[in-house]
Write a structure and sequence with these properties.
Nucleotidyltransferase, domain 5; single chain; 13 helices; 18% strand; 6-stranded mixed beta sheet; binds zinc ion; binds 5'-O-[(R)-(carboxyoxy)(hydroxy)phosphoryl]adenosine; 11 strands; alpha/beta; 44% helix
Length: 388
């Protein structure tokens, strides 16, 4: 069937953390443009996102990024059917930039505004591409799907199910402290590596022995988490990644690694923008082994708990998304175990793994069908939860 070119288009806007992003997506599955302005250079000297600087950068970037998304898609503002924006979770000041802009735009154009949960966006990053793949094979995704959303701010497990146009989510796992990506970032920082830490550790781990250092994930005691009800405790999978960061620090202290770390930090400050592989000569074998062992421990913990949860809830497929889903060892080990168990597994392409706005526009498509629009009071919700 011939489709008219300028129909069923949603403009997605994402500004929850350190990427200003805009994308135009047709029917939640066809990406016409996907523009991401990264703030890595701004936050890099601090080894983490500085909220105040993030807000300013979003404000600087939002207009050109949206303009670029429309121009790449070859459309004008009036061709849009709706505007979708990340409502939360994320940094309040950062979210407010995207929301204020999207609200004004929707008002000026008299188009519906659709608020999207960032975590639902990450799940749709993988659903979007799975929809294309399965349509080509005339298949549909096996449901319920267990979705692991694993990024710098989140480590969550959701059981995703579809009822008509509507997607529903049940939160069946979460971290009690740090997110997995946060552990990658903090460990990279304490070893004198670059920011963000995930891609550094991913690359350098290939040169180390993952069995050199043993890290144990002590059984997480849910009773330590007072806010949860007994039913919640029994049914929820808990992660915890703050202990391993401390264990890595202790290892470096016990093995006299601090002068090497300081030197590496100095080298790095003198070479802003250097790529991980080019920094390889600054790393001794002991550090490379530590990096590989850390990554193996985190990936194994995520893998064990995710597959155990999939079994417990009889999930028919597995979806893995968020920045840490870009990790090569994670992809290899999850894919191998899924194959062993005969469980279909999906990852987003690398560009859709980290924060982007195509995932926000894709998540908004079902909401356009059911008219889940924002009211005038829409504001940022930094702690917005997904599912029940
Ligand atoms: O999804 P994302 O862009 O932003 C959040 O919503 O947090 O994820 C960013 C996180 C950072 O912690 C970064 O270090 C991590 O994803 N990350 C990785 C890799 N690429 C990005 N972690 C491990 N391996 C990677 N290849
Ligand atoms: Zn994210």
């Amino acid at each position: 069937m011939h489709e008219k070119p300028h129909t069923d288009l949603i403009l997605g806007i994402e500004s929850s953390c350190d990427e200003t992003a805009a994308a135009v997506v047709r029917r939640g599955s066809e990406i016409l443009s996907n523009i991401v302005a990264s703030q890595i250079a701004t936050h890099s000297p601090y080894g983490g996102v500085v909220p105040e600087l993030a807000s300013r950068e979003h404000l600087r970037n939002i207009v050109p990024v949206v303009r670029a998304a429309l121009s790449k898609a070859g459309i004008g503002f009036h061709d849009l059917d709706a505007i979708a924006v990340t409502e939360g979770p994320g940094l309040a000041g950062a979210l407010l930039v995207g929301i204020s802009y999207a609200k004004s735009l929707a008002f000026a154009l008299n188009k519906p505004l659709i608020p999207v949960n960032h975590l639902e966006g990450h799940i749709h990053a993988v659903l979007l591409e799975q929809a294309q793949l399965r349509a080509a094979q005339r298949e549909s995704l096996e449901l319920p799907a267990l979705a692991l959303v694993v990024s710098g701010g989140h480590t969550h497990l959701f059981l995703a199910q579809r009822q008509g146009e509507n997607w529903t989510y049940r939160n069946v796992g979460r971290t009690l402290d740090d997110a997995a990506g946060e552990a990658f970032d903090k460990v990279a920082k304490l070893l004198g590596l670059g920011y963000p830490g995930g891609p550094w550790i991913d690359t350098l781990a290939l040169h180390g022995n993952p069995n050199a250092v043993h890290f144990s994930f002590a059984q997480i005691k849910p009773k330590a988490h007072r806010k949860s009800s007994p039913a919640d405790l029994a049914e929820t999978t808990f992660f915890s990644f703050s202990g391993i960061k401390t264990a890595v620090l202790r290892y470096t202290q016990l093995h006299d690694m601090s002068s090497g770390i300081r030197q590496r930090h100095r080298n790095l400050s003198g070479h802003p923008g250097i790529r991980p592989l080019d920094a390889l000569p600054w790393l001794d074998q002991k550090t490379l082994d530590l990096i590989a062992s850390f990554q193996r421990a985190v990936v194994d913990d995520l893998r064990r708990k995710t597959f155990r949860t999939a079994e417990r809830y009889d999930a028919a497929s597995l979806l893995v998304s968020g920045g840490v889903a870009a990790n090569r060892e994670l992809r290899v080990r999850f894919t191998a175990e899924a194959a062993e168990r005969g469980l279909p597994i999906g990852f987003p392409s690398l560009t859709l793994s980290t924060d982007n706005a195509a995932m926000i526009a894709a998540a908004a498509w079902p909401k356009l069908q059911t008219q889940e629009f924002a009211n005038e009071a829409l504001t940022a919700d930094p702690a917005l939860a997904l599912g029940r």
